[in-house]
Each structure stands twice: as structure tokens, then as C-alpha cells.
Task: structure prediction
Amino acid sequence: MENDTDKTNLRGIGHLISGDISNKLEFKLFSDSNVNVGDFVLVEDQYHGIPNHFVGRVTNIKLRTLGREDFLTEMSNQIEVSPMEVNPYEFRDSRSEILARIAEISLIGILNKGNIAPPKKIPNHLSPVQIPSVQQMDWISSKGDVEIGKLRAEMTGEGDIPILLDSEILVKKHLFVAAMTGSGKTVTVKTLIAGLYKTDKYGILIFDVHGEYFYPLKNNSKGLNELDNENVVIYGLGDKVDKGNQILINYRHITYGDLLYFYDWSSPQREALGIIFSDNEINNDYDHPLEYINETKPFDMKKEYGINIETGNVLKRRIKQIIDGNLDFITSDDKENLFTKIIDDLRFKRIVIIDFTRLSERSENILINILSRRVLNHNKQATQKSENPNNIFIVLEEAQRFLDPAESQNKGVMRELVREGRKFGVGLGAVTQIPRFFDERILSQFNTYIILKLTNSSDRNILEGGSPQNISDMFTEIATLYPGEAVIVGEAIPLALPVKIHNFDDLDLKKYRRESDDINVSKDMGAF
Ligand SMILES: Nc1ncnc2c1ncn2[C@@H]1O[C@H](COP(=O)(O)OP(=O)(O)O)[C@@H](O)[C@H]1O
Ligand SMILES: [Mg+2]
Result:
């Protein structure tokens, strides 16, 4: 960048007073300047023939009373009016104490022709610290196809630096979104989904446990339904949802694999179910193996399949509950196979929202597990037949419930999806307000983290453990973020970055519609 040395746009805010290349640098703020935790600063090394521009980030700010040994700070205080004209090595002062605000920065690199190189040297004492211009920060603008927000940093000059993420990395290598309630997780995911939708590359399945995605939550806010009437589909219970999209599943569409998520089965019980299901495929006396179990006496099950009477009793009791409709989403009415319908929607790269507001928590757990299992299996089978299935992105709110090995409803499908999904083009976007319920092993499988405000230190520590880049420098900042402000870390961007996420409500949704749809629309409208 030819402008590396252009000073007209810069704003001086302080002087460097101490530091350690492997750790932190400290500068003293001018009394009339200020800086925010998370801001980028430019440190201009002024004692070399060739100027060096170091880029750093403010990680902490503190008040200090400095004594005699802090002579340099004291001196810095005296010369802040006109730093360049004073020779610091000739400076003398008689006062003994100084009140100062000291900011800590971590060194990111050295600017060189618009690129950033790792810092292998350190700026000199009293190097001026400045707020960079937009142009000087341009090296950050990333390559990607989904614009999630803009660089959140104080800069001089006009314009913003858009932050783009690579959707392939984001989807296939899993995304982790963590923040306290009310910090902007759902808005972030909605903005991201608008961007993913536009790429026309993914089927998106959202497990909407709070009913926040489809309809606008409050006045002058938007739901994903406004993105596209046809390709954003909601499934749920109640009058708000079309008849054909009610989450009602005919028990005859339940498979052996599904059934494993309905109860905690002992191994003899699982084995018995397995025998009955596989045999029923051969001799078709009953429409469905569940009917056989419901209508057959345990004594006869023992005679036919050698199933223990006690096991037979348990199977009967549990299956009866399912068939009798003790679960709100099971019906005996004739219905289209809902699972097939949803998988078809995903094949057409639609956005599928499963709204759980009218369903019990038990049903929610079962459905999330079964649907994920079916999507994963569908893509697995297609991959094995080398059919190149669509990439699918699954959004899971309250993800800790399904990824925490200590939770009883976690039956492994989500952990398997995180470990193996990328091979079959299934990615997970896990959203949580309690990252400390995750283990490092599972966290390290997520390649992109979007972290919004988190004040609990164990939450931040566990993220540091799994994170692909170092974020411990950003702990103070993460604790002080405003809603919609994030730190993004991962393979999709060059370094951990502070980002202001675009508010979904402010997006011009027309720009996110797919181009193919525009063509259809203009055809329908005929000649002008
Ligand atoms: N990117 C953003 N820009 C501006 N405001 C935001 C943004 N994200 C969130 N907010 C504000 O914060 C509120 C809570 O956001 P939400 O996404 O529902 O939080 P969470 O899902 O973490 O509980 C929103 O209603 C909005 O007012
Ligand atoms: Mg939310």
C-alpha cells in the first residue's frame, strides 16, 4: 500500500512505554485521547531509517500511578503535545509521580505493502501510537461469499471493511455460535442464513426450539419467511402452519433406527426390536412391525422369536404408548411421509424451519435426533453411491442439550454428525448460551466460532481450549461486547477478528434472493 506512511489520516493517541514481543506492549494514552478494548492501533517505529508500521490490538486498559522507575511514562506524559520534536534520551524531569491510563496491546504483525507479516521485532520506546485509517486496515478484508458484518474498529477515513466468510468452510467444517441470552445469536444466524441462501449451494434445516426464525418476533423486525415465500418452509403444529406442513408422523413411517430415539432400550430389548423389524420385511402379516408388537401376546412373541416374556411386555407397553398417540407428533391418520418431504425440501436447497413451540420437550428431543439421523444417513448413502448429495447445514439452537455427553437425550447422533458430517456434506451450526457444557474434543471439531458477549470465565476458557486461534487476548473484550458485536475465529478468516454483525432486520432482503428466482419472476411478468 503506497499509503503506509501517509500521516494525514492518522490520529495519535499515545506513546509506547514498555513491552515484550512474546507478550504485550504497553502505551500511555494522551490525556485527551481515548481508546476502546478491541481497537486496532498502529505503532510507528520512528527510530529506524525505514519506518515500520506495527499493527496491534488493545486487549486491556488500566489506571496507574507511576513512580520514579516509570520514568519513561512520565516523560511520555510531558512530551505528548509534540512528540516528534523531543529527543527522549535527553529528557529530564523533576516530578516524582504521574497519573496515567495505560493500554495493553498484543502485536498482530507488521504492515508491508498492504499485507501483514508476523512481528519479529519490536517498536522503540515512545513510538507514537495511532488510530489507523480504513485504507491501512484493508489487508483484513477476507475472501468469502457470505458477508456477515463489518470490521468493528475505530478507524479514520471513509468507509467500512466488510467481513466475508467462506461458506464451504463455514458449513462443511461446522460453525459454533456462543453468547449469553440477548447478545445476538439468533440475529447472527439469520443474517448468515440469508447469505448462505443467496449462494444457492445449501439446503438449510433449522431446529427452531424457541420459534424465532420464521415469523418476525416483534414489530419492525423480520422473519426468514420474508426472504422468499416459496423456498422458506415452516413445519410445526397449530393454525399458524399449513395443513400439509403439520408435524404429524404416521407411526407406520417409523423405522427401527427412529425407534431407538424414543426410549432408552436395554440391549435385549433392542435386539428383540431388531429381530421383529427385519422379519416383518419378509413376511408381511402386518402393515408395520409396531402393529405386530401391539397386537401380539408376549407369549406368542416368545414362541415365534424366542423373545423373553419380560422383554415382550416392555416392548408392548412402550409401543402401545406410541400407537395410542401419547406423543403429540404421532398419528395413525394417513399422512404423506413427513421425513421424505423434508429431505426433498433440502434437496431443493430450501430453508426448512422446524418450529417446536407447540411440541413437548420430549417430542422435540426425539424429532431433532431422528431428523438429523435421517439427513445424515441420506447424504451418507448418496455419497456411497457417488451421487454427490447437496450440502446441508443444520442449525441447532440449545446445542448443549444434544452435544453434552452427560445429557440423557444425547444419543450420539449430533456428536457423530460433528465428527463425520463433513465427509457427507452435512454441517452443523451449533448455537448455545452455555459453552462450558461442551468438551474440548467436540469443540475442536468446529472450524469457525462466532463469539458474542460472554461474561462467565469458564465459558471463555473452554472456547480458548477448542479454538483454532488464540483468543485469550480477547477475554476482556468478549465480556464487554454489545448485542450484535462479535469476535470471529477460525479457518474462514486470517485472524481472530472483531466484527459488528449485520442486523438481519436491516438487510435489504431483495439482494439476497436467488438469481434464478429473479429470472422466473421476470418471465411471469411478461414484457414491460
Ligand atoms: N447484529 C445486531 N445488530 C443490532 N442489534 C442486534 C444485533 N443482534 C442482536 N441485536 C439486538 O439484540 C437483541 C437480541 O438478539 P438475539 O439474536 O435474539 O439474542 P440471542 O439469540 O443471543 O438471545 C435483538 O432483538 C436486537 O435488538
Ligand atoms: Mg436466540
User: Anything to note?
Assistant: Confidence is low (pLDDT under 50) at residues 1-7, 518-528. Residues 361-384 form the longest helix (24 residues). DSSP finds 16 helices and 20 strands in the chain. The chain has three domains: 2-140, 165-244+338-521, 263-323.
